[in-house]
Design brief:
The longest helix is centred in the N-terminal third of the chain and has 46 residues. The protein is globular, with a radius of gyration of 21 Å. By secondary structure, it is mainly alpha-helical. The chain contains 6 helices and no strands. The termini are far apart.
Length: 208
């Protein structure tokens, strides 16, 4: 009888763990969808721009590209790393806020918006010739940074919801300290991955 009870409890514990994992995967999928919505919105926005707005966008883009092209490899690395780290820092801070989880979807949407707008502009100006530049000069960094950002969004949303349930709902979570340490360790890995991504982009800037 006792063995049967223990087996039942173990089965419930495994089912609970699978459910938590499933929720984590669902949250990640949601952020990926938000990112793709941003890409489509950015591309659509550029396509609908009038001539004057397109000229302004073109001027900003060309100045940005010229400025980055004039940088040395380490200057480019620092520029990219600091800009990407600032985004991660915002997400990291949001995780400790009980009402930070509604902010997290904004970050991947803006990331996708930027990529979609840039790609649509380049394709509109250079046609099929822009595909190679986008594929080799923009997409690799965008893919890596997007993976890091979506993972960061998931971690921030989950910890923020934990704090929300504790602070606003009064539901005690005995594992909150462990979850916070785990959260910090995950973000440390993401910051290191961001440094690698920034270095790769700096190298690509020297080539393209």
């Amino acid at each position: 009888m006792e063995g049967t009870v223990l087996e039942t409890l173990e089965t419930r514990d495994i089912t609970k763990r699978r459910y938590v994992l499933s929720k984590g995967e669902t949250v990640l999928v949601i952020f990926v969808v938000v990112l793709l919505m941003g890409v489509l919105s950015g591309a659509s926005t550029v396509r609908k721009m009038d001539e004057e707005s397109l000229e302004i966008f073109s001027s900003i883009f060309l100045k940005s590209q010229k400025s980055r092209a004039e940088m040395g490899i380490w200057e480019a690395f620092l520029s990219v790393f600091l800009s990407q780290s600032a985004v991660l820092l915002i997400l990291f801070t949001a995780g400790f806020c009980a009402i930070g989880f509604p902010v997290t979807p904004v970050v991947p949407f803006l990331k996708g918006l930027s990529f979609g707008a840039t790609s649509a502009y380049l394709y509109g100006v250079q046609g099929i010739g822009a595909v190679k530049y986008i594929a080799l000069g923009i997409f690799p960094e965008m893919l890596i940074s997007s993976v890091i950002i979506t993972l960061g969004c998931r971690e921030s949303a989950r910890l923020s919801l934990n704090y929300y349930m504790t602070v606003c709902k009064g539901i005690r979570d005995d594992e909150i300290k462990y979850k916070t340490r785990y959260y910090c360790a995950r973000y440390l890995v993401m910051f290191l991955a961001t440094a690698v991504s920034a270095l790769a982009e700096a190298l690509l800037l020297q080539i393209y």
